[in-house]
Amino acid sequence: MEPLREPATRNLSNPEDRRVVAPQLADLERDGFAILESAIPEETVEAVANEMRRINAGDGAARGRNAFAGLSTLRAYNLIAKSRVFDPLITHPRVLALVEAWLGDDVQLSIATGISQLPGAPAQDLHRDDAVYTVPRPHAPFSLSVMWAVDEFTARNGATRLVPGSHLDREGSLPERAAVHAEMPRGSCVLWDGGTLHGSGANQSDSTRAGIAVIYNLAWLRQYENQYLALDRDTVRGLSPTYRALLGYRVVHFTLGLLDGESPLKALEN
């Protein structure tokens, strides 16, 4: 087997994709969120939808443990260990371009979760994803969250609510009524800064609304999910260099992530 190598450059996206997403980057800077419409083809959306239904029908998903997680919401954690069908979402070129344009080149995957909001589910409390990092505000961006629409997202079926400009709001003075719904067709995604106030809307429809929630964070921060234990080494060996880097199998800032003074990829060579 050829020796595994880290990506040749620190960044995982390419300059062309960064140019393409310039309008969404401007939206992120102004509002704290942006939408990429119809980012994946219909056949990929259908494959993801079918896989979500399979997982939800088995023992791979369960209702939220509390009101915040959603007692009427099915959550499937550790998606990357459950199926390779979700990989095109995790490593989507334009998403990675926005992640790196927003956070810088040293990023990693924090968590990937399937979220299926059942009919009648109430709205989730507004919150900030980067609140887990107890650093006083204001601070530089720590994370970028992505919600993929497996079904069409509408105000009626519980589309994500976001408060425009709340990533810049130091006083916490923006009211909940300022929130807007991220309405978008299936196959689209909404991205928001970790400091943006957001939460799922109430599902007032008679159908389940499914989405895939993915968070990326700075590579020197603790991940939501422990990606080193999420996948066995044989599976990691078969992933692309970009995917392995997102999981943490690379060195950042010259010293973070070393294994016996070398790249953590050394762990995959045995």
Briefly characterize the structure:
The chain has 270 residues and is an alpha+beta fold. The chain has helices spanning 15-20, 22-31, 42-57, 79-82, 87-90, 93-103, 227-230, 233-237, 241-247, and strands at 33-36, 62-63, 73-76, 107-117, 143-149, 161-162, 180-181, 189-193, 198-199, 209-218.
Report on this model:
The chain has a seven-stranded antiparallel β-sheet. Strands 7-6-9 form a three-stranded antiparallel β-sheet, with no helix packed on it. By secondary structure, it is an alpha+beta fold. The model has no long low-confidence stretch (mean pLDDT 94). It contains nine helices and ten strands. The longest helix has 16 residues, at 42-57. The N and C termini lie close together (11 Å).
Number of helices: 9
Topology order in helix (H) and strand (E) letters: HHEHEEHHHEEEEEEEHHH
What is the typical, i.e. mean, pLDDT? 94
Number of strands: 10
Shape label? globular
Assembly of the depicted chains:
single chain
Distance between the termini: 11 Å
Helix content: 10-25%
Q: Ranges with pLDDT <50 over ≥5 residues? A: none
**Approximate strand percentage:** 15-25%
Q: What is the makeup of the main sheet?
A: 7 strands, antiparallel
What strand line-up does the widest sheet have?
1-8-5-10-4-3-2
Computed Rg: 18 Å
Question: Which terms would index this structure?
Answer:
270 residues; alpha+beta; seven-stranded antiparallel β-sheet; three-stranded antiparallel β-sheet; 25% helix; 18% strand; globular
